[in-house]
Amino acid sequence: MPEMNELEEVRTMLAETAEGWTREWERNGEVKILTRLLQRRFGDLPAWVSEKIAKAEPSFLEKWADRVLDTQTLDAVFAEPV
To answer: Cα dist. 80→2, 25, 67, 74, 77 in Å?
Structure first.
């Protein structure tokens, strides 16, 4: 039975790895879309925007993307509270 346990461990590890990749791909897509929206709306982005986006949780990325449509300034997109 040790072989079955090892096989199950490998299957679990692969599932967790695939799940992690999927989350990473989704996050990268959100970053790309948000950056593109910001550039189209506000032009060239300062470095602080890229840094803030790179460190952000996915929920923040979604809220900021919504704000691109509702705000008049780049600072307002990132204003607290999120």
So the answer is: 54, 27, 12, 13, 9
